């Protein structure tokens, strides 16, 4: 088996005396989908925040393609090819749909604004950005809304745009924080179909409460409980695990 | 719309033929103020960075320009190039000097996502530089200022930059170019990123862009255009004093840009024009101009939170739909303002009554601050104006 794209090693995070993460070990292989589940307060969001650089780990390490990214700034981590989405859509209320995706495309084209060299690169790459923007508008089926502001979109479209912004930066590792939160059943089903196509071949890690989505998408499931990794196995194994069922899946018919 | 643009441009170009030198001087100052307000709008409106020290950059640009102008005036030329040919470049000198300072200070001010930290750091730096400038009168001229003569260098025949209309044309070119460039900037990827950083800096970071860098670059761009405005002001006034760096100047930029409105580029243009009308024209008419400015600012913030530009937009639509209503409302508003103005002027005159008497002339009318009838008339005009405004507005709503 090739080297995992993302490795989380003995990761700990404390807030004062409160231990949120107490030594998490996880691996994510290329093209794999790992779902992180657990009750509220289990540390799922904190885990995402530490991996994506919003928080620094108290101990332990995070490796992306074998390089340590622990404690780096979010923008540096994003440039190394890790992108994340948010549980509550983080859209820019004064920018159009096309502008959202364009900003995400900039990163994929390696555009940074660092001095004159950066500026020349930006000008040379603008047509390129325009082309990938058109591609993403089509893939996300937001072409008709490209001039709209986020406030004018339906909720499902906003979630799609949030996902699109994450994907359009063409990362190798994608973290999705409850991508289907708040959607109806039919919206969720459509969304999952789309997600499966769009993330084909990329390493995906998602936090999700909807077990149907988890079992449909995930190759492996990691169960967090009180900052510890309770289990990390295939969906079938997790479903059969007595400890997991007692704390989390209690009500789910098997 | 195209036709309107072109005719506006022709009118601006033909202004020297139509206006006297005094009115032309006002136009020059308006052009300068528009560039200054637009550079501030780029920071505050587009980037969400409320600077309390924006005069720093226009002031430093002005000092850089005036020192170079003095040097040119003394030597008459730079190598084989006559000074008259180099003079049009002085606003760029001001801009570059200001951009350099903005690069250094901006690095400090834009480190944090918090707008409060930015505001406080710019305030502190502004005070620091102002206090520092007082200590070096040889460079900053103290209160007397540094003077120069723009027509002193070797001239190009009759074109010696002395007459106001020659400086007007230079200012016109610089103002239009600067305003257009700032406007364009907001449509570039960098401009979109700046708006994104204003709304959600964290999200931008997760897209792989450093919010600090985006803010820093925009700060330098805004500083550059403020410096251009300062350089133009140095050329026009031929004097720069430490007042150009003062916090009052910074506050004026903030107040008038905000009064104009932040949502589109029209706001700062309006704000710049208004700045000159109030600080130059109104201050010549009445001693109470600061009071009017404060009142107008508060009223605009309360009644038109998105600025005068949006208010004018509404008025324009009303004028197209219902011209009669619009005319009535304007009349009512003017009456209310005139009435309030009369009352305020008489109040002001009361203070001076002991020395120069209680008589005053207001809009060509003789008033007496001790005469009850004048007070009643002023208040009546004010309240009737307000009532008429309300009545018309009420009818329109129904």
Task: Kindly describe this structure.
The complex is a heterodimer of chains A (254) and B (398). In chain A, the strands form two sheets. Chain A has a six-stranded mixed sheet, sandwiched between helices. Chain A has 254 residues and is of the alpha/beta class. Chain A has helices at residues 44-52, 74-79, 97-108, 115-139, 155-168, 185-198, 211-217, 235-240, 242-249; strands spanning 6-15, 18-28, 33-37, 59-64, 67-68, 82-84, 173-177, 203-207, 220-225, 228-233. The model of chain A has no long low-confidence stretch (mean pLDDT 85). Chain A folds into two domains: 1-81 and 172-254, 3-Layer(aba) Sandwich (Rossmann fold); 89-170, no CATH class. Chain B is mainly alpha-helical and 398 residues long. Chain B has two domains: 13-273, ABC transporter involved in vitamin B12 uptake, BtuC (Orthogonal Bundle); 322-397. Helix content of chain B is 76%, strand content 4%. In chain B, strands 1-2 form a two-stranded antiparallel sheet. Chain B has a two-stranded antiparallel ribbon with strand order 3-4. The two termini of chain B are 33 Å apart. The mean pLDDT of chain B is 91. The A-B interface holds A 52-54, 73-75, 78-79, 83-84, 86, 90-95, 99, 102-104, 106-107, 111-114, 122, 126, 129, 165, 169 and B 189-190, 192-193, 195-196, 199-200, 202-211, 213-214, 217.
Question: What's this, in brief?
Answer:
Chain A is of the alpha/beta class. In chain A, 40% of the residues lie in helices and 23% in strands.
Kindly report the CATH topology of the largest domain in chain B.
ABC transporter involved in vitamin B12 uptake, BtuC
- SSE order of chain A, as H and E? EEEHEEHEHHHEHEHEEHH
* Separation of the first and last Cα atoms of chain B: 33 Å
- Tally of individual helices of chain A: 9
Q: Indicate how many domains the architecture of chain B comprises.
A: 2
Query: Can you tell me the CATH architecture of the largest domain in chain A?
Result: 3-Layer(aba) Sandwich
Radius of gyration of chain B: 23 Å
Alpha-beta content class of chain A: alpha/beta
Helix % of chain A is: 25-40%
């Amino acid at each position: 088996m090739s080297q995992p794209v993302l490795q989380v090693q003995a990761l700990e995070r404390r807030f004062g005396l409160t231990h949120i993460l107490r030594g998490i070990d996880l691996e994510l292989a290329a093209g794999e989908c790992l779902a992180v589940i657990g009750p509220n307060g289990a540390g799922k969001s904190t885990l995402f925040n530490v991996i994506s650089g919003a928080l620094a780990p108290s101990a332990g390490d995070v490796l992306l393609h074998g390089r340590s990214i622990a404690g780096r700034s979010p923008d540096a981590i994003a440039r190394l090819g890790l992108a994340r989405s948010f549980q509550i859509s983080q859209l820019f209320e004064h920018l159009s749909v096309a502008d959202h995706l364009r900003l995400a495309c900039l990163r994929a084209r390696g555009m940074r604004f660092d001095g004159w060299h950066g500026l020349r690169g930006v000008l040379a790459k603008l047509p390129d950005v325009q082309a990938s923007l058109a591609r993403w508008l089509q893939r996300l089926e937001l072409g008709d809304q490209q001039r709209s502001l986020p406030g004018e979109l339906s909720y499902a479209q906003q979630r799609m745009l949030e996902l699109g912004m994450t994907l359009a930066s063409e990362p190798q590792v994608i973290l999705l924080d409850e991508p289907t939160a708040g959607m109806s059943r039919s919206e969720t089903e459509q969304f999952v179909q789309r997600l499966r196509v769009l993330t084909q071949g990329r390493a995906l890690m998602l936090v999700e409460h909807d077990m149907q989505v988890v079992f449909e998408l995930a190759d492996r499931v990691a169960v967090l409980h009180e900052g510890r990794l309770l289990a990390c196995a295939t969906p079938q194994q997790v479903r059969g695990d007595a400890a997991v069922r007692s704390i989390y899946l209690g009500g789910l018919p098997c | 719309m195209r036709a309107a643009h072109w005719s506006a441009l022709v009118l601006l170009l033909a202004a020297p033929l139509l206006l006297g030198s005094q009115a032309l001087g006002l136009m020059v100052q308006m052009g300068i103020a528009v560039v200054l307000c637009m550079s501030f709008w780029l920071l505050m409106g587009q980037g969400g960075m409320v600077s309390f020290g924006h005069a720093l950059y226009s002031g430093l640009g002005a000092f850089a320009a005036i020192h170079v102008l003095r040097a040119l005036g003394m030597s008459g030329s730079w190598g084989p190039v006559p000074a008259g040919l180099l003079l049009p470049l002085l606003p760029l000198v001001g801009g570059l000097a200001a951009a350099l300072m903005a690069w250094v200070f901006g690095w400090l001010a834009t480190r944090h996502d918090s707008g409060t930290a930015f505001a406080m750091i710019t305030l502190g730096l502004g005070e620091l530089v102002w206090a520092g400038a007082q200590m070096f009168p040889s460079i900053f001229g103290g209160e007397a200022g540094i003077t120069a003569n723009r027509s002193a260098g070797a001239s190009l025949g009759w074109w010696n930059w002395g007459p106001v209309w020659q400086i007007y044309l230079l200012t016109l070119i610089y103002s239009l170019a600067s305003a257009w460039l700032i406007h364009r900037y907001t449509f570039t990827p960098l401009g979109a990123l700046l708006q994104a950083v204003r709304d959600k800096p964290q999200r931008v970071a997760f897209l792989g862009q450093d919010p600090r860098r985006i803010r820093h670059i925009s700060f330098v761009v805004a500083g550059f255009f403020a410096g251009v405005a300062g350089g133009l002001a140095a050329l026009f006034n031929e004097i720069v004093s430490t007042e150009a760096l003062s916090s009052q100047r910074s506050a004026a930029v903030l107040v008038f840009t905000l009064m104009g409105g932040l949502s589109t580029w029209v706001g700062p243009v309006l704000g710049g024009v208004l700045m000159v009308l109030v600080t130059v024209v109104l201050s010549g008419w009445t001693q109470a101009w600061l009071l009017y400015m404060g009142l107008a600012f508060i009223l605009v913030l309360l009644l038109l939170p998105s600025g005068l530009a949006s208010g004018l937009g509404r008025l324009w639509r009303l004028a197209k739909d219902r011209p009669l209503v619009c005319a009535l409302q304007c009349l009512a508003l003017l009456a209310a303002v005139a009435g309030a103005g009369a009352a305020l002027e008489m109040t002001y005159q009361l203070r001076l009554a002991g020395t120069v008497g209680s008589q005053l002339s207001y809009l060509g009318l003789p008033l007496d601050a001790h005469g009850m009838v004048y007070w009643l008339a002023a208040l009546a005009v004010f309240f009737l104006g307000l009532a008429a405004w309300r009545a018309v507005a009420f009818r329109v709503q129904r």
